[in-house]
Amino acid sequence: MPVPLAPASRDSAVAWTRATLPARPTMIRFRWRYEDGRVKYAGRGSARIAPLDSLRFDYAGPFGLGSGAAVVIGDSVAWADPAANFRSLVPAIPMLWASLGMVRPPGAGATVFGLADADRTIWRFAAPGDTLDYVATLRALPERVLEAEWRRNGAVVARSRTRLDPQAHPVGARIDFPEAAARFELTVVAMDTAAIIPPALWRSRR
Fold it and tell me: Rounded to whole angstroms, how far apart are CA atoms 137 and 118?
C-alpha cells in the first residue's frame, strides 16, 4: 500500500462495497484463460449475480470440454460440480468477486482502514491471519480500475486487477497467484442487466 491508512467506519466500508454490486440480477458472459507452470486452459463462461451475495459461476473449455459450475454465497462455496476443477480454477473467492467488479464487505471480526481522495478510494479489511486491500481508481478514463490484494499470514495469496467501463461494469480482469506462479484472466463479451435466473440454478448444475 503506497500510503498510510487511518482507521475507518465499518458501516462506511459496507456501504461502499454494496455500491459495487449490480442493482438487479445480472448475467456476465466472458472468455477465460488459466495457466500455471504445468498447464494452460481456455474457454468460455458466465456469472449470474443475485445481489446481495449470490453468484452462479459456469465454465467450459474448448468444444465444451472440462465444463463445470459452482454457486458461491458470500465468501463460501455452497456447491461445486466438479469440486476439484472449480477450486483449482478459482482458488480465491474474494478475488473472483473482485474480478467481476464487486467487493465483499469486511467480516464481522475485521478491522477496517481507509482513505479516499478525488482520484481513488482505498480500503483495508484486516482479520486475524487474512488481510484484503482494495484500491478503486476513479479517474482512469476511459476505464476505471479496481485492484485487490489478499495476504494470509503476511504472504500474498492473490492479486487482481479489474478494468471497468464508465458505468462500473467489468470489461476484463487478471488474477495472479504468486506462490503457484498461476494466472487467471477473463474478458467480458456480453452483459445482461435484465437477466432472469431460474431458482433451480442455485440448487444444482443442471
Answer: 9
Given the C-alpha cell 463479451, which residue does it identify?
189
Q: Tell me, yes or no, whether 114 lies in a domain.
A: yes
Report the number of distinct structural domains present in the chain.
1
Residue 122 CA to residue 140 CA, distance in Å, equals: 15
Does the residue 1 lie in any domain?
A: no
Find the domain containing 119 and state its range.
6-202
CA distances from 31 to 43, 155, 195 (A): 6, 29, 19
- What span, in angstroms and rounded, lies between the C-alpha atoms of 206 and 194? 22
Residue 120 lies in a domain: yes
CB 42 within 8 A of CB 188: no
Strand partners, 31: 44, 187
Element at 86 (helix H, strand E): helix 83-89
pTM of the complete model beyond 0.70: yes
Contact 173, 41 (CB under 8 A): no
Note whether 81 and 71 are within 8 A (CB): no
Residue 105 has a pLDDT of 96
Residue 83 is assigned to a structural domain of this protein: yes
Residue 147: band (very low, low, confident or very high) from pLDDT cuts 50, 70, 90: very high
**Of 76, 120, 110, 114, nearest in space to 96 by CA:** 76
Q: What is the pLDDT of residues 31-46, one digit of tens each?
A: 999 999 888 989 999 9
Q: Are 112 and 125 in contact (CB under 8 A)?
A: yes
Q: CA 159 to CA 147: how far, in whole Å?
A: 8
